[in-house]
Design goal:
alpha/beta; 12 strands
Length: about 350
Amino acid sequence: MKRILAAGSVALLATLSAGHASDAKSDVKEIRIIESGGTSGESIDIAYGAPFTEATGVRLVREQPPSLGKLKAMVKSGNVTADLMELSGPGVETARAQGLIEDLDWDLIDPQDMNEEARLPYAFGYQYFALFLASMPDAKPVNSWQEFWDTERQPGRRAIPAYARYALPLALLADGVKPDELYPLDIDRALASIDRIKDDLILWEAASQTPQLLKSKEAVYVATWDNVFEEDGFFVNFAPGIWDVAYFVMPKGAPNPELAMKLLHEMSKVENQARAAEITPVAGPSPTIMDHISPAIQAKMPTNPELRKTQAGSDRMWWAEHGDEAERRWSEYMLKNF
């Protein structure tokens, strides 16, 4: 695959039994979670882990990376070492269908107000992120994915994620599909859209690659969700972005469910979410989060709720039901064309 850039994996996620009632014992020294790492992991440590430890005396230990396969292996082996794992929306639904996760105890979480899509019976949406447009300032500004796709308007290569879940919706938006009509995805139309500019496409596997692609002029435009900010000399446009939610789930058989719920309680607090946004500029699940964030941080935030008027959302249920087919067809297309 000549134009697929290899890198680390992208960052790119039952009721409690009576015996769990005594889990929050004084002799529990730590709980473990599995999350995506990077600045997101740092934000968890500082904004959520610190107040959790202060309230409980229990240390938070983070591990990386999360994956559905890792969750399945833990649960099937009976050796569940993590109390929470980060998963994507489709990963959450797949894990639920396979019986790998517990329902959350929302009475024990006792959350502050949360957006509806973030509060599922079996998953806690802790972070919003978005795929957005970026370039160097000397390129023609792009105001839509259609302009991003237009190689006559601005010649040069474009860099997009090497993942069906992002590449296919992006290609449909570039072909003129309206954000609110994106699902169900038309896979044939998406692949045809990509086919039109495949010779000018670079597929990246980690968003950390995108700044260098722009600086080196290897790509004139990138679709990215991290590491590209105006303050570093780039042009960015969040308005046509594709937003999504990252969730935490509790593996079936988690050793410390009550403590896990207490950590999620800290994640529900809007003041803690505002602290997290200072470390990585993404929105937490509170509907009033922007009231607690400075204008400087809001300007760097691709998931500012105001932007959802023009952004497209993902559909975790569609991906849970049709993701295997979409991934298969995308993989076949990549093998043939890249």
